[in-house]
Structures are given as structure tokens and as C-alpha cells.
């Protein structure tokens, strides 16, 4: 792995994570959520973080976002050490982070209003984004009147409006039915191909990770470390029914299953104590 000085040249990754450890103290007990994480994400790359529940995916994403600093180690994003959230890193949460009292249009416009954009700029940008995400007919609706898939679409439109070079997505499609999920995955890929943002996408879906990612980062269970990085060289659009796709799926499943079993064994030991 390259160890260039941050900021030194064009090959500088969009995200550089070195030696990241994160311990939580809860009820007098320490939980080591992450340990010894080293990872580079290239500008414009789409990387999936994959692993069983509790392996530290959200913790790692939050460290990149700057919501919760690591106990040890460093995260550099867009050439600057991460010490707090910033407009260069936009987060899409698993729960639809929409304002229920605002219409679709106002939700999408919110970040632009905060940034002090003119009415004209806001209007042009919001119109374009609503069209891009097939939401134009729903601009005056409130979140409660939308399906889950549409709400998640609004959440994506809202994050795209901010124009951050980096999108951090924490299981954004986890709660959706299979068909809606596939639609949104395709939409995300379309937008990514057009805008070339850097995306870190957290999921526990093996197929989802192989469908989306340039590289799948498989994490170990507690402490979360990088178990294996699996490059996905298949051309897009990918066919989940193809032999190549299924070969990768088997490989990644075996890695995840190992961690799942380790997790269950550890839980068994904990119960037996
Ligand atoms: N604020 C916190 N305080 C204490 N422990 C925490 C906190 N946040 C996370 N943890 C612990 O750290 C570990 C990793 O949690 P994290 O939420 O990052 O996992 P995850 O991989 O995102 O899981 P899931 O797939 O269920 O969302 C878990 O054991 C969790 O209980
Ligand atoms: Mg999580």
C-alpha cells in the first residue's frame, strides 16, 4: 500500500485510513469496535464495507464522516485530517434523514439554503435533481406520503444537492424490498458514473456489495479489522446470474461466513461464562 505524504501528488487517495482503533467504554466494560484499520479509497472509487452486524461498519463510516473520532490512528479525507464533520463528506443514513414538516422540494433545497445559495441557483439545482431522481411529480408532497424507496431517493437527492465530492452511505437500501433496492442501486450507479463522486457504501448484503463496488472490503467481527479486500473487475451493468458473479459471491460468502461463525462461537463462550 502506498505511504506517500498526504497531499503529495495526483495519486493521493480521497480517503486514507491508518492504524485506526476505536474503543467504546460502556458500563465499565470496554468494547473494541475497530483495530488496526488501514485502507485507502481512490478518488471516484466506489468501495463497499461488508461484514456481519456489529463488526464496526458504522463505526468506521462515522470516523470518516468525523462524527466520532478514532481512539487511535488517523483518517485523512480530501487531503485534510478528519477532526469533525465537513461539507466535503455527505452522509446518507439508514433511517431516512428527512424533515417530516418539509416538502420534498424543501428537503432537497435545505442544504443549499444553509449554504447561502441564491433562489435562482436553488431552483435550478433542485429542478435538475428532482428530474434526475424521478421525483418531479412529487415535489410538493411530504415524506409521510412517500414510499420507503421514494424517501430514500429524496435522501439521495438531498445529499447530491450539497455537491460533496464524497458520499458516505450507511446501509441506505437496507429497509427496502428487493425490486426497489435494485432500482435504487441502478440509479446510484448511474449517478456515480455521471458525477464520479467517491462513495463508501456500508452493507451487509453480499450480492449488493458485488453488484455495486469496485472493491469489497470484508471486515472481521470484533474487533473490526480488514479481513480481505476483494476487487470486483466485472463490467457494469453486472449480471447477478452470471457464473463470474456467482464465483465472487461464493468467495465473499465464505469470508463473511467465517466471521459469522467466529461471532457465534464468541457469543456462545460469553453465554457459557
Ligand atoms: N456509541 C457506542 N457505545 C458503545 N458501543 C458502541 C457504540 N457504537 C457502537 N458500539 C459497539 O461497537 C461495535 C460495532 O458497532 P457498529 O454499529 O459499528 O457495527 P455495524 O457493523 O455497523 O453493525 P450493524 O450491521 O448492525 O449496523 C458493536 O459491538 C457495538 O455494540
Ligand atoms: Mg451499522
Automatic annotation (TrEMBL):
GO MF annotations in UniProt: ATP binding
Location of the ABC transporter domain: 15-246
Keyword vocabulary terms for this entry: ATP-binding, Nucleotide-binding, Transport
Protein name: Nitrate ABC transporter ATP-binding protein
Amino acid at each position: 500500500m502506498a505511504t506517500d505524504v498526504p497531499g503529495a501528488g495526483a495519486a493521493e487517495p480521497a480517503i486514507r485510513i491508518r492504524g485506526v482503533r476505536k474503543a467504546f467504554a460502556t458500563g465499565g466494560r470496554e468494547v473494541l469496535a475497530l483495530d488496526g484499520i488501514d485502507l485507502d479509497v481512490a478518488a471516484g472509487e466506489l468501495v463497499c464495507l461488508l461484514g456481519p452486524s456489529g463488526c464496526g461498519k458504522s463505526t468506521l463510516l462515522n470516523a470518516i464522516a468525523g462524527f466520532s473520532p478514532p481512539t487511535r490512528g488517523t483518517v485523512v479525507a480530501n487531503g485534510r485530517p478528519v477532526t469533525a464533520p465537513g461539507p466535503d463528506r455527505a452522509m446518507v443514513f439508514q433511517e431516512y434523514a428527512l424533515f417530516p414538516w418539509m416538502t420534498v422540494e424543501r428537503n432537497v433545497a435545505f442544504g443549499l439554503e444553509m449554504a447561502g445559495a441564491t433562489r435562482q441557483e436553488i431552483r435550478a439545482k433542485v429542478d435538475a435533481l428532482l428530474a434526475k431522481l424521478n421525483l418531479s411529480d412529487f415535489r410538493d408532497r411530504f415524506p409521510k406520503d412517500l414510499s420507503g424507496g421514494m424517501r430514500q431517493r429524496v435522501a439521495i437527492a438531498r445529499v447530491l444537492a450539497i455537491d460533496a465530492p464524497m458520499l458516505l452511505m450507511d446501509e441506505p437500501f437496507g429497509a427496502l424490498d428487493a425490486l426497489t433496492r435494485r432500482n435504487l442501486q441502478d440509479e446510484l450507479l448511474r449517478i456515480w458514473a455521471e458525477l464520479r463522486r467517491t462513495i463508501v457504501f456500508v452493507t451487509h448484503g453480499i450480492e449488493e456489495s458485488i453488484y455495486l463496488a469496485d472493491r469489497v472490503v470484508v471486515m472481521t467481527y470484533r474487533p473490526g479489522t480488514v479481513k480481505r479486500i476483494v476487487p470486483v473487475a466485472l463490467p457494469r451493468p453486472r449480471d447477478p446470474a452470471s457464473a463470474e458473479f456467482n464465483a465472487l459471491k461464493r468467495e465473499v460468502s465464505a469470508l463473511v461466513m467465517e466471521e459469522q461463525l467466529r461471532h457465534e462461537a464468541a457469543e456462545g463462550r460469553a453465554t457459557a461464562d
